[in-house]
Structure prediction request, 118 residues.
Amino acid sequence: MMDCLFCKIIDGEIPSTKVYEDEYVYSFKDIAPIAPVHYLIIPKAHIASANDITEENSSLVAKVFEAAAKIAKAEGIESYRIINNCGDDAGQTVKHMHFHMLAGVKMGWGPESLGKTE
Ligand code: 5GP
Ligand code: ZN
Prediction:
């Protein structure tokens, strides 16, 4: 897609620090990390959000999680969190579906971890 930031990163038009790549997915370091390890894992195909997952493209989500497991093994990461923000209220700012892989810190869980803005 012409006007998509992450499609441009996949194409190399915008530079990124690559973590992993295969036929289906691309992974790179988040430009504004919120944890010691903060990678983004994205399908190469442009899918706007998790709300656009269909029977036809859902295998790409499995590829994302396969990639996460490979990255974790390669980097010796034993524990990690994968987050997908879908839509504006959830904080999705880039409309190319992506999964945040966070690690390297003890993470909280519960309502406070939502970081509510209102
Ligand atoms: P979202 O808020 O949509 O779930 O996540 C978008 C993520 O993309 C944010 O964590 C943001 O820091 C990251 N990001 C935005 N622009 C760029 C960029 O040009 N390069 C990289 N590597 N990450 C970006
Ligand atoms: Zn895209």
Residues 5-106 form a domain with the HIT family, subunit A fold (CATH 3.30.428.10).
